[in-house]
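Weekly modeling sync, notes
Attendees: S.R. (lead), two postdocs, one rotation student

Agenda item 3: backlog of single-chain predictions. S.R. asked that every request posted to the team notebook include the full sequence so nobody has to chase files. The rotation student volunteered to paste the first one in as an example of the format we agreed on. Action items at the bottom.

Example entry:
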Amino acid sequence: MKTVWTSHLKGDEAKQFEKLIRNCLVPAIVDRLYTILDNDLERLELDTQSARQYDKPAWGEYTAHCNGYKEAMRLIKELFDLGEAK
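Predicted structure, as returned to the notebook:
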């Protein structure tokens, strides 16, 4: 679990909030979210690797947008990873 979840809290409050998060996140919902994000990332990867992308007049801006979008999806996945503190 990323420490950013509890970085605004101290001591017992942080522990209680972490427990609350772990109890609220239903594994089936998190798994489905990961699947949705993975599918979207895969679609975006295929789209951005296509040679036809170079035909776009604003290819650089489109590429920057896609890279930012992919980074945001990765961040969401990291936030929902409740493994050891990171």
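Discussion: group reviewed the output briefly. The chain is about 65% helix and 0% strand.
Action items: rotation student to repeat for the remaining queue; S.R. to check formatting next week.
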